[in-house]
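Re: Re: ligand-bound prediction request (bumping)

Still looking for help on this. To restate: I need the protein modeled with pyridoxal-5'-phosphate bound, output as structure tokens. Inputs repeated here so nobody has to scroll up.
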Amino acid sequence: MAANYRWFAQRAGSAACAACVKADAYGLGLTAVARTLWQAGCREFFVASVGEGAALRVLLPDALIYVLNGYLPAELPALRAARLLPVLNDPTQVAAFEADFPAGTPAALQIDSGMTRLGLDAGDLPALGPRWRQPGAIALLLSHLACAEQPGHPLNRQQLERFTAAWQALGRPRASLANSSGVLLGSDWHFDLVRPGAGLYGLNPQPEQPNPLRPVVRLRAPVLQVREVREDTSVGYGASYRMRAPGRIATVACGYADGYPRAASSRSLALVGGRRVPLIGRLSMDLLMLDVSALPPGTPRPGDEVELLGTDYDVDALAAAAGTIGYELLTHLGRLCRRRYHPAEPNPPE
Ligand SMILES: Cc1ncc(COP(=O)(O)O)c(C=O)c1O
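Reply:
Sorry for the wait, this slipped through. Here it is.
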């Protein structure tokens, strides 16, 4: 992950590189992720909620922490205590901030440039009070790209144009538009700060291209049992899968309660001793079955570990097999798993 951060920081050129660590750092664990990114040189972080920001503040006393969803009235004490920068997303949030904080207190403003999710509309800008024209009042102007994964999508340029217009109208404050995929769109999209999330965690920012980033997650589980079965034996709940020939099946201690997607039943694979074997039948809460008939007799054995995610079969590949995206898979993964974090390599190869 540290190498991925450095990759984005270099790609960002003269723009600074923040990190999006919302949802417990995309499910990977905020503590380890935040510390690693700070060590790699990251100084600005984006979270979704005040609660996430407060947790991050404990870990990183000196970081700049932006709260993408802004804050609710009840969250004001926590926002202040943790010295978080709220992202204000509509005129109501702006008015609340003006009432809660004296002029001169900086905040971030989000513009909706085409995502139609959060952010001020262009029509809201003329009504912004004079305090927002003061230098430094807008700590960061940001917007979010809807189609950056598809470099040729016309909305990318339209959003850039709308965002640029808002940025100019507000006196060119410090600005940020690009998520992971946006960084790859080119320097026009970089402004002063880029804010990748997914790519830091190894997801491919442009699925049509080879992934320039390193896989960050490996998921392994032990084989519990290996059994010989006859042709036409059914496997798993619903007897949805039938063996076409006699063979061997390994039952592995991982299931949907571990975050392995049930929709990948009979559609994904695992690596056993470096060889790919198919997952067969419906996976259950804490078990899945692999057809290991093609492996040498006697392998695997109960207790051997199989690799369910890693360099050969990564999060994007499993997500595709399950009909979802890497983001969803990562954020559901491993609540019950024993996690081990490996320190960053001191001198990673370029
Ligand atoms: C507003 C905002 N900025 C940045 C990001 C990071 O995007 P990505 O994970 O695609 O790099 C997200 C993620 O959803 C986001 O919502």
